[in-house]
Specification:
The protein has helices spanning 21-24, 40-54, 104-116; strands spanning 31-36, 59-65, 75-76, 79-83, 95-99, 124-125, 130-131, 135-137, 142-143, 148-149, 153-155, 160-161, 166-167, 172-173, 178-179, 184-185, 190-191, 196-197, 202-203, 208-209, 214-215, 220-221, 230-232, 237-239. By secondary structure, the protein is of the alpha/beta class.
Length: 249
Amino acid sequence: MENRGLGGRRRRGLRELVRTPRALSRPEGPCSIVIVGAGALARDSISVFDAVCRAGAPWRLLGFLDEREQLWGERYFDLPVLGPLSWLDRAPAGAHIFIGVGDPAARRRLAADVAARGLPFCTVVHPGVEASPWVRIGTGCIIFAGCTLTVEVELGEHVVVNPQCSLAHDVCVGAYSYISPGVDLAGKVRLEEEVFMGTGAAVIPGRRIGRGAVIGAGAVVIDDIPPGVTAVGVPARAVKPEGGRVERS
């Protein structure tokens, strides 16, 4: 019988493929990188870009883009804030883009803007990540150091996985979701699109977290969470949002 995995694709045996974390970063050839955003995630991402380049990726970082005019000309880690998003209209040929904005809904909007310009995205995986060959990582994702992804794990486009996270077998993370440091997703957990997982949160096996839900720091999810709900505590319980959605840089 043919061996098939996620989405009916044929599974690859251990002798068929040995892949290193660096090979999970894309593109594998020379390119220039522009980071959209100049806030916390954008600056944190430099640690991953630096590690990937030190591991041999032939990439060149050009700088950051940000709509805040007061930042134009500033430098972070010796990289300039080049200007607003419209700078991409004159981006050099072959440039790849990383969306360095943490808020899931904002990251979706920015990715759509970049895609409308016909520009490609890069995918960045720290060489210290432990990821089996049976992991699928969508375009535009970033995975920080110290994370473990076991088998049949699938990340949608533009997912952020911060340091020291654990994603067990058959976990599926929807596009634009943000996983804060130290999150533990047990087997067969499903996060729908634009989920925000707070620092140190945990989800027991087989639970589903609905689109746009927010899980508070340190929460332990033992039941399914409906879309758009904010849940906090141990065990996690829904709370009424106050003041609307919080933008995350």
